[in-house]
Amino acid sequence: MNLLRIRIRAILLWFILISMLVFLFEEISFGEETKSTREFQIPGYGILLLNLPTSWHDEIYRSREDQPPSIILRPKSGDEFYCWMTIRGPKEGEAGFNHPDRIKVFVKQEGETLLDRAVETEILLQELQGSHSIGYFFSLTDKSPKRGEFRYMTRGAIGVGNLLLSFTHLYHKKDSPSLKEVFLMLQEVRQRKK
Fold it and tell me: What integer pLDDT is reported at residue 63 of this predicted model?
């Protein structure tokens, strides 16, 4: 009798383990988003290569001819997030403008100007390192967002090649998958000079 119970328990445990593995595999398979590498012409600096989810819409924007271009990213449908990156090149004679130490100071100063509207009381910088880039970022929560406004913001900058990418990512849910995708995109960003 005890041997029969042991066999039944072993079979049940085996069945539960297999079910869990199948469920986990499906979550991993369906959780991954298809991506494509998109190229953005940056006049005077070649091409910026971003690996973006295919479900994202992108456009390049320039308010004036003498201003650096920005790349705007958002979902093709819905309003889960809104992200923009401004791309800057060095001014003549501006050596080391995208050095990690300078980026760190720049990002911290940017964050401190936003603290009066934030739940957080200080800027906690985090490093963002990629295969061709290094930078810093922080996240803040809006104290009192108006209806339709985003509650969360992650802002930072990263150096890649001889460019500086400053980015702002706005989102509604603290654990938004779009933020993870932005970090992956920034870790893989590349510059291809002509």
Answer: 75
